[in-house]
Fold this sequence. Notes:
- The chain has one domain (21-156).
- Helix content is 87%, strand content 0%.
- The protein has five helices and no strands.
- The chain has helices at residues 2-70, 80-135, 141-156, 158-169, 175-185.
Amino acid sequence: xxxxxxxxxxxxxxxxxxxxxxxxxxxxxxxxxxxxxxxxxxxxxxxxxxxxxxxxxxxxxxxxxxxxxxxxxxxxxxxxxxxxxxxxxxxxxxxxxxxxxxxxxxxxxxxxxxxxxxxxxxxxxxxxxxxxxxxxxxxxxxxxxxxxxxxxxxxxxxxxxxxxxxxxxxxxxxxxxxxxxxxxxxxxx
Length: 189
């Protein structure tokens, strides 16, 4: 009976962990989708302002050319109205560019935090398993130290590992070079 009770407890615990993981994933996905939607809306507004700006500049240019063709003297045209319409457009475009940059930075920070949390979670999960294996005599202290150091290094050197992988993703370094650098950090066995 004790075996079945333990099995039931393990099943319940596993269910809670899986449910929590799905909840966390849904929350992160929702936040990412919200930021992506905000960026998309701002980019659409930015495109509209670009078209309006181009049209206004074209109107100014046409007015100037018409004036030059009609007059033989130095051009003195009044484009104040067009300029007054262009300036708010230019200011709003700059604001949108700043907002997009802030949202993208926030999105990158959220992704960084999520990846770091995943690395920490992996460390703690593996540490629990290795602790259990060490207590049970399944592995030696030397094996434990070797294996745990890899996971610990992944957390301690997280930013450097992320930079190395980004270099590989951008084809700046080869896969062998990436692996060599990760091994040098102790982040790969």
